[in-house]
Amino acid sequence: MSERAQFATKMGVIAASVGSAVGLGNIWRFPYEAGMHGGGAFISIYILCVILLGIPVIIAEFIIGRSTHKNANSAIKTLAPGSKFRFLSYIGIIASTMILSFYSVVAGWIAEYLFLSITGSLNGHTPQEYSEIFSSLVGNPWRSLIWTYLFLGANFLILRKGIQKGIERISNLLMPLLFILLIVFSINSLLLPKATEGLKFMFMPDFSQVSPGMVVGAMGQAFFSLSLGLTCLLTYASYFSNKTPLVRSATIIALLDTCVAVLAGVIIFPAVFSFGAEPTAGPKLVFEVLPNIFQQMPGGYFWSLAFFVLLFFASVTSTISMSEIFITFFTEEHNMSRKKATWLNTIIAIVFGSLCALSFNVLGDIKLFDKNIFDLFDYVSSNILLPAGGFLLAIFVGWIMDKKVVKEQLTNNGTLNVKLMKPIIFCIKYIAPAAIALIFLYVIGLFKHIEALFI
Ligand code: PFF
What we know:
Blueprint: H1 10-21, H2 24-36, H3 40-68, H4 72-79, H5 87-119, H6 127-139, H7 141-160, H8 163-190, H9 195-203, H10 212-225, H11 232-237, H12 246-274, H13 285-296, H14 300-333, H15 338-358, H16 373-400, H17 403-411, H18 421-444, H19 446-454
Helix pairs in contact: 1-8, 1-12, 1-14, 2-10, 2-12, 3-4, 3-9, 3-10, 3-12, 3-16, 3-17, 3-18, 5-7, 5-14, 5-15, 5-16, 6-13, 7-14, 7-15, 8-12, 8-14, 9-12, 10-16, 10-18, 12-13, 13-14, 14-15, 16-18
The structure holds 4-fluoro-L-phenylalanine.
């Protein structure tokens, strides 16, 4: 087998994983999910999920990937020969392809907003007009399709350049810039007339609003935002060097990712209330609200341009990591050439991405469980497949893998002193799988049936 590439620097490891984690999940999905589920209570449960489920499962993925330096399928075959846990790699391939499909549609919207920013036509409108600009984009099948395809084309080109050069260079350069820009925007939003209302909505939880839908939504959002449960971070960790500190890297990734999501909320919610938008608007929320913010800032043209350029790249660094799951599997397990695997991944995403893009217009009437195709792809992958993957990953590392290997990985062969080793192993073994299972049971309504038995 040929020598696999490794990330060149310690920063490269973190930057590429953060590049995967930080993307539309933080800036587009987090604010709209929080908005739809009442704000503060959702955000509190979300943060709890990041700490109790997110970090332990990131560590679990890192342990499997780094201990074997192999893709998910071979890694599990190596660690537990003959084990059924190999199915994890199928969850990864199905979930990553579903996510890539609807994600590319949203990234296509970003690309069109970038284009509108360049031509200056995103400037100087009323809130009502911004809402119409977005509706006319998603309502037009050709426009949505073309932008989705352009985005997938960009993703394809970057992938063809290979792992180290493509991913590492882009992530290293742009992530810090995006972070700085978000800080500037959040300061601007805090100065808006109804900033306090927005902050109250985010940070004063009303726990009477907690519902099964909200809890599973917060868990799904945590997995989605951290790129977790679908062996993406496992694949990245297979390129880590033996010196990468796993626990510290996992914590930094979760922390940075959560900071970006919270910053996005601090940007969006004061603006939602100040510009008279509805927090419950759903997927269109940020597209309707953000242009209002840029427009009232001095130098709005420049800010919107910078923002959409950076968000475009943040989306690409996320989609490359989704594609990488698919490509690594087919090149390493099925001897496919990298070129062929990249083509196959792109073609599948074009087919399903088209269905997702068309579900806002010509296929709008096709609904299953009251969801259009786009929402269904999103719901099934984020709220079901990723937590199910996370459950299996935690069980695998906590119960199946050799404890000695787990400890060696956590401590880099005894060279690191990991103070929280016991609590971390406890979370991987008990807390994370139990919490995921309980949330699923809560959603299925099992608790209600049990309650009914006693009343
Ligand atoms: N974490 C990414 C985001 O928040 O935008 C989305 C994502 C990337 C999900 C990679 C899954 C994945 F494998």
